[in-house]
Amino acid sequence: FYIYWSVKPRIVLLGKTRSGKTYTAKTIVGQERRNSPDSATETCELKEVCVAGKIVKVIETPGLTDAPEKKIKAELQHLVYMSAPGPLVLLLVIRLDKTFTEEKNTVKFIQENFGEDALCHTIILFTHADQLKEESLDEHIRDTPDLQAFTESFGGRFHSFNNKNTENRSQVSELLEKIEKMVEENGWRYYTSEMLQKTQRKKQFCKCLFIGGVMLGVTQLVLAPITLIAAGGAAVVSFYRFAKNG
């Protein structure tokens, strides 16, 4: 088994705190699982391993989807540095042994913090696959309408790990095959650090611009010029260059 990649594979693990990101990283790199709780990662951590003849970088992030805004901004900057020139894939880690509820907001989180383009670079990675017992993952998703709709938001791309069985390397090789297929469908264009930085700049501009206390959205920024009324005067600001170049 050999996978051809023209770039060094860089995998970023995203997800809520205690979703199983740490054990997932250990499974990918082939590190033995200890009989201890899945400790919460405080900051981005990098691991490397040789898989299918390639050095794979695995970057584990803290629980960004439920973190304060200041923490998210700091860790995204850290992520840009560690994954340069950008990750090949974003793995969204979700537990199968928990009720699927708040995960619906994850799509919005990725769009706001990574940009719309990030969705086509994302694969959902379900942990605790041993909880399915006799039911297959495909059957479980079909029987859960909310979960099915959620996976379709990411092009129906998903995989599962049994992190209790780190010796099962086939689940890792199958994941890498799915990553390669996704990258091929994307024309070998991976998610770049520039995309992330551009999204963060747009997000910052959106937060700073108000008219009468109402925040302007990205769509309004693109429809520049905009007239801002402030301190009894009018200021006309053109955002054409910003919308064009980020």
From TrEMBL:
The record's keywords, sorted A to Z, are:
GTP-binding, Membrane, Nucleotide-binding, Transmembrane, Transmembrane helix
Q: Does the keyword Nucleotide-binding apply?
A: yes
Is DNA damage found in the keyword set? no
The GO terms describing molecular function are: GTP binding
- Per the UniProt record, one Pfam family is AIG1
TM regions (residue ranges):
208-240
Q: Where is the AIG1-type G domain?
A: 6-200
Sequence similarity: Belongs to the TRAFAC class TrmE-Era-EngA-EngB-Septin-like GTPase superfamily. AIG1/Toc34/Toc159-like paraseptin GTPase family. IAN subfamily.
This protein's name: AIG1-type G domain-containing protein
Protein's organism: Sinocyclocheilus grahami
